Amino acid sequence: MARLWFMPLTMIFASFIAGSTSIGGGAIAFPVLTLVLSISPLIARDFSLMIQSVGMTAASLWILKLKVPIETRAIIYGTIGGSLGMVMGLWWIHGLFSPAYIKMFFVCILFTFGCVLVIFKKDTGIVSLPKILKSREKAVLIGFGILGGIVSSLTGSGLDIFLFSALTLYFGICEKVATPTSVILMSINTVLGTSLIYFFGYVDIGAISPLQPQAIELWSTSVPIVIIGAPLGAFFISRRNRGFIVKLLIASIIAQFVAALLIVPHDLNLYLFEVMTLAIGFFLFHEIHRTSQIASPTHEEPIQHV
C-alpha cells in the first residue's frame, strides 16, 4: 500500500525532470522502484515505459504547441534505431542479466555520459544538423538509437540519453535543442515498448511474459501527476539557458549514481562489472566527442548556429 502513495509523490519530481531534461521520468522511477522500494526490475521497467508513454507524450505535445526548436531528422533516424533496439531487447537480450547488474549498468552509463559532458562539451550554439546528412551521420543516429532502445527495453529509459549524447557530443547541437528532441523521441519509443509488451509480451528465461499487473496498478495512481508535471517541465526548461539545463542534468545523474552505490548490495564481481562499464562508457562517449563533426568538420553545407 505504501508503494501506491509513494509513486505519485516520486512522479511529481520525476515527471518534471522528464519534461525538462534528456533523462526521462523512467530514469528516476526505475532507481526508486528497484533501489528504494525493492521492486522487481521487470515491474519497474514496465511501469517506467507505461508512465513515460503518457507523461512524455504530454510533454511532446506541449513542446510542439510552443514551437520549441527540435531536430526532426534526429527523431526519424533515432526512432528507426530505437524501434529495432526495443524489439531486440525485449525478445532477445532480456533475461540475460541479473537485476543488480541491470541497475548498475544503467547508472554507470549515465554517470560516464555526465562526466564527458561536463569535461569536454562546450556551447557551440549549433541548433540543427547539417542540411545534407551523410551515410556515416545517419549510421550514428540509428546506431545510438539501437543502443538506447536496447537499454530502454531493460530499464524503461535510455534512448533519450543516448540520442542526446549523439546530438550534443558528436554533432555539437545545443542542449536547448537536443533536450526537447530527446523528449519527443523517447515518447515515441515508450509508446512502442508499452504496446509491444501489452500485445505480445517479452521473452523471459525462454518463456513469453506479459505486462506486469503491479506495474499497471502503480501506473494508474501516477497518470494524473505526469500529465501535468511533464508539460510543466517542458515549459520551464524552454525558458532556461544551456548552463542551467546542464547543471540540472548533472545533478540528477550524480544523485542516481551515489544512491545506487549505497543501496545495491555489492560483491567483487559487481564492482568489477561497474569498473568495466565505467571504462567502456567513458571511452564510448569520449570517442563520440573526439570524432565529432565539431572537432573534424566534414560538411560542405553550413551548419546553422544561434
Structure write-up:
This protein is an all-alpha fold and 306 residues long. The protein has one domain. Helix content is 75%, strand content 2%. It has a two-stranded antiparallel ribbon. Helix 2 packs antiparallel against helix 3 and helix 3 runs parallel beside helix 9. It is globular and about 45 Å long.
SSE string, helix = H, strand = E?
HHHHHHHHEEHHH
Number of separate domains: 1
List the uncertain runs. 295-306
What is the gyration radius calculated from CA atoms?
18 Å
How many helices?
Answer: 11
| Strand tally | 2
Percent range of helical residues:
over 70%
> pLDDT average, as an integer?
80
Main β-sheet description = 2 strands, antiparallel
Distance between the termini: 50 Å
Shape: globular
Strand proportion, as a percent range, falls in under 5%
Structural class: mainly alpha
Please provide a brief summary of the model.
With 306 residues, this protein is mainly α.
Descriptive keywords:
single chain, 306 residues, mainly alpha, two-stranded antiparallel ribbon, 11 helices, 75% helix, globular, disordered C terminus
